[in-house]
Specification:
Elements lengths: L1 E10 L7 E10 L4 E5 L6 H8 L5 E10 L2 E2 L5 H7 L1 E4 L6 E5 H13 L5 H14 L10 E2 L5 H15 L3 E5 L7 H16 L4 E6 L12 E6 L2 E6 L2 H9 L8
Parallel strand pairs: 3-10, 3-11, 6-9, 9-10
Antiparallel strand pairs: 1-2, 1-4, 4-5, 7-8, 11-12
Length: 248
């Protein structure tokens, strides 16, 4: 589904550019759950943003192939139309844009349909139920005045509406209490179980992995992938931390 080949990424700042991703090779298999772990500042979020074409970062070397097509020459919205999705670590507030109008717009753009507000509301209610979200939230402005947990649920709701081929979830579990983690994990598992979506879950901690079972775990440190393995690797990290172990 996705092949990252010798990728190097720097901040796009002419006065003080800094290389963050330092030669990453990574492959994500179609229909599998992959987890990317690592300490703060290791480059996990930079990698996620670079994959989606964030203008604040510059790809200096390498390539990113999505279904054998390079993403690097595509604008962010073109990458999204191809079927990629990024759940932001820090979702922004957009006062004045109603959630109902926003979700309907992105659904119609992706599907090529033109659902009426009433038909779309019926569709989105089913997806909101998976996240234990009240229908009244549709009349609020996007993330405006939302708690951190509400913002994260809204990101997952967008994923459920779009049903992308590749979902990159950047620290979806941060700021969530244990009950919210269970709800979000359940929603992710349900859409994953009913589709061939490929998931890259970025996290610091193993607590969400009690509810989401990954097929592959990668460890990033100082801008490089230093270890990879099955789900047992995550449990080893919980016991020994990131400082132990050799790359392979």
């Amino acid at each position: 589904m996705l092949r990252i080949k010798n990728l190097e990424v720097s901040t796009k700042d002419n006065t003080d550019a800094k290389k963050i991703i330092k030669g990453v090779d990574l492959e994500l298999e179609k229909g599998k759950i992959h987890v990317l772990m690592g300490p703060n500042g290791s480059g996990k979020s930079t990698l996620a943003n670079a994959l989606m074409g964030h203008p604040g970062f510059s790809v200096d070397k390498g390539d990113v192939l999505f279904e054998e097509e390079s993403l690097l020459d595509l604008e962010p919205h073109e990458r999204a139309k191809k079927g990629t999705f990024l759940s932001f670590q820090y979702p922004v507030e957009i006062p004045g844009v109603s959630i109902s109008s926003y979700l309907r717009m992105i659904y119609n753009k992706k599907s090529g349909e033109n659902l009426s507000p009433a038909k779309f509301r019926a569709l989105v209610k089913e997806k909101m139920a998976l996240l234990d979200m009240d229908e009244s939230i549709l009349d609020r402005y996007l993330n405006d005045g939302f708690s951190g947990g509400e913002k994260k649920r809204m990101e997952i709701l967008q994923m459920l509406v779009l049903e992308p081929k590749l979902a990159i979830l950047d620290e979806t579990d941060s700021g969530l209490d244990i009950d919210a983690i269970k709800v979000v994990s359940s929603a992710i598992n349900k859409i994953y179980g009913s589709s061939d979506m490929t998931i890259l879950l970025i996290t610091h901690y193993t607590r969400i992995l009690r509810y989401i079972k990954p097929d592959k775990v990668f460890v990033m440190q100082d801008g490089k992938i230093t270890r990879s393995g099955g789900r047992e690797l995550a449990h080893k990290l919980e016991e020994s931390g990131y400082a132990h172990g050799k790359s392979h």
